[in-house]
Design brief:
Layout lengths: L1 H8 L6 E3 L12 E8 L17 E16 L2 E14 L4 E4 L13 H10 L6 H7 L4 H10 L14 E7 L10 E6 L4 E6 L4 H8 L4 H5 L3 E4 L4 H8 L5 E4 L1 H21 L6 H8 L1 H5 L11 E3 L2 E5 L1 H9 L3 H19 L2 H8 L7 H12 L1 H9 L6 H16 L6 H15 L12
Parallel strand pairs: 2-4, 6-9, 9-10
Antiparallel strand pairs: 1-2, 3-4, 4-5, 6-7, 7-8, 11-12
Helix pairs in contact: 3-4, 8-12, 8-14, 12-13
């Protein structure tokens, strides 16, 4: 009975004995209370170090309470009767020790481990405190004490690094925080409180030269900061622009063009309402448009298929039509991995609006990095973008974070427990 109870409670110390028939549930309380005894013959004195056990005598008992992890949806407390010893050699006293609970503490190691494991879930710290029967300040201390487990390995860096930024806390030094991930294992490596070139360079300069030279590919969006790191930090790396950001950049420009056209129309006009309602249809790839089924539309009662209806929308403005053609060319060339078609699209001399010309100009400036994306199409910032969604969820369910340091630790704990190794990428030599 004693051993079964110890197994259920996760007690591995052989010197602790659970007293039979002592499990109680006081009236009006939800806490299970058990009684136990901790007694053994010490081999040495922890005060003076004497090894002669005959110099150590039993000197009564001390009563302590140990909080254990919840069991059967109830809080569990162990009333532990611990042996008190006296050393005749140094005339000092000490208490029987156990690996169940840290010295001078009442919360068991198992409760602390349960707390750390629950910190990997996207719930608030108050909710975790309730789950493990502790205070939220204890959960905060447990989080802060875990920082030693997240020191970066300065001797190793992955061959392929994904880089991005995210909004963190007001206490962070920069408006946006920098984050980077191993593209091979999808493991989040670290989060910095600023994304400026100076801060990122200072961080990576702590790594060994061998580690920095081992980086072969940096996958990122079109942020101008990250390509500069290749010149100063990663001498053997190439920059690959994420394919999603290539298209997204042009889509934003086209949407601004559409809004600009709408501003020149009367709000009550059919053209304005049609552009407002069917804006998603304009972003649909041309290859996926339905050209077989004809039906009437909300703002056009004629029997039209999707391709005909889009032609009607584009007839409202010549710049909208030319912008749509460029957008479709770029989307098709990225999907088919056709570099020549992509170059033709971004260097088009069509009648484009200023809002559409801006993203094309950005693509022309970053042609080398975009070309690397066409040559190395297996690389994507998708895993890091998915991580960003999880980070935003952590922030939202935790009702925000004041301290960036705490926010960073919470993120690293979450992804340390969650990440799994994926299949390796092969770096394409340019």
């Amino acid at each position: 009975m004693d051993n079964n109870t110890k197994v259920l409670l996760g007690i591995k110390d052989k010197n602790i004995k659970i007293i039979n028939n002592t499990v109680s549930l006081p009236e009006g309380s939800s806490t299970l209370i058990l009684s136990g005894i901790l007694d053994y013959r010490p081999k040495y004195c922890p005060k003076c170090g004497i090894i002669d056990s005959t110099q150590i005598i039993r000197f009564g008992w001390r009563h302590t309470t140990v909080r254990l992890p919840r069991n059967f949806e109830r809080d569990v407390s162990l009333k532990l009767k611990r042996r008190y010893f006296k050393c005749k050699s140094c005339n000092k006293y000490f208490l029987a020790e156990t690996d169940l609970v840290p010295k001078n503490c009442s919360i068991s190691y198992n409760t602390r481990l349960a707390c750390i494991e629950k910190l990997s879930d996207t719930v608030s710290m108050k909710h975790i405190a309730k789950e493990v029967s502790t205070s939220d300040s204890f959960v905060g201390r447990t989080l802060m004490n875990s920082q030693r487990d997240f020191r970066p390995d300065l001797n190793n860096l992955p061959q392929v690094i994904l880089m991005d930024e995210i909004k963190s806390t007001k206490s962070a030094e920069g408006a946006m925080s920098f984050e980077f991930m191993d593209a091979d294992t999808h493991r989040l490596i670290d989060v910095l409180d600023a994304r400026t070139q100076y801060h990122i360079e200072q961080y990576f300069k702590r790594y060994t030269t061998k580690a920095l030279q081992s980086v072969k590919v940096i996958v990122t969006d079109m942020n101008y900061t990250y390509p500069k790191l290749v010149q100063s930090i990663f001498p053997n790396a190439i920059v690959v622009t994420d394919r999603f950001h290539i298209i997204n950049n042009v889509v934003r420009g086209f949407n601004k063009t559409r809004i600009q056209v709408m501003k020149n129309l009367n709000i009550s006009s059919i053209q304005y309402k049609a552009l407002k309602k069917y804006w998603k249809l304009l972003l649909k790839p041309a290859t996926k448009l339905d050209f077989k089924n004809f039906h009437s539309w909300t703002y056009n009662k004629k029997m039209l298929c999707e391709t005909d209806f889009i032609d009607w929308l584009l007839s409202f403005d010549p710049q909208l039509e030319s912008g749509y053609e460029v957008l479709q060319r770029i989307m098709a060339s990225v999907k088919s991995n056709d570099w020549q078609e992509f170059q033709y699209a971004i260097n088009s001399n069509q009648n484009l609006s200023e809002t559409m010309e801006t993203p094309l100009s950005t693509l022309r400036i970053n042609q080398d990095y975009v070309f690397n994306a066409f040559k190395n199409k297996t690389y994507s910032n998708g895993p890091l973008e998915g991580t960003n969604n999880k980070i935003k969820l952590i922030k939202r369910t935790g009702y925000g974070f004041r301290s960036f340091f705490r926010f960073r630790l919470r993120i690293l704990i979450t992804f340390k427990f969650k990440y799994q190794k994926k299949s390796s990428h092969k770096v394409t030599k340019l």
